[in-house]
Amino acid sequence: MARGDLTDAQWESIRRYVPVSPLGRLPRNLRKQIDGVNWRFRTGSPWRDVPERYGRWATVYDLHRRYCENGTWLAILLGILADAEEIGEIDWFVSVDSTTVRAHQHAAGAAVSEQELRAALDWLDAKANPANQKTNLPGRIEPLASYSRTILPNLSTTNAASSAGAARRGRARRNSAAPGEG
Q1: What global pTM score does this model have?
Q2: Cα-flanking dihedrals φ and ψ of residue 104, to 5°?
Q3: How much is the average pLDDT of 66-88?
């Protein structure tokens, strides 16, 4: 076992959340392949640099991609969190001090049309809630199900006025095209 690989106790805690093949058994090298995925994300290296002890890099990548598509990674995460909560290791208490949340001085006053804002928010929704997201958990998991966005009707006119004032003072307006519009 290499440094950073799953211990026997860690493997047993996630093993029950891994899908079983139609033949009724786990793949022979599954633990090594999961260790390979962990190694890749821990080091930040390219997939082709995954060491041979974890199997062929393409096999490790295919496992990761398949588990992303069918929701296995999400099932493992939610299962581990549920187990930890059940034995009292997680209390879900979060404290946020608002004085430490700041925006950069250039983050204010960007002129964005309502159409550009809607396109950017639609792009964000598509990334956060993909339509083809599948899980092997009962019911559908929607990470941002309670997220709702509202666009104020006078938002574009307020930003247009502030950008006109900035242009009069000689500051160049930054192009704020929506993602995907290059």
Answers
A1: 0.51
A2: -65, 155
A3: 90
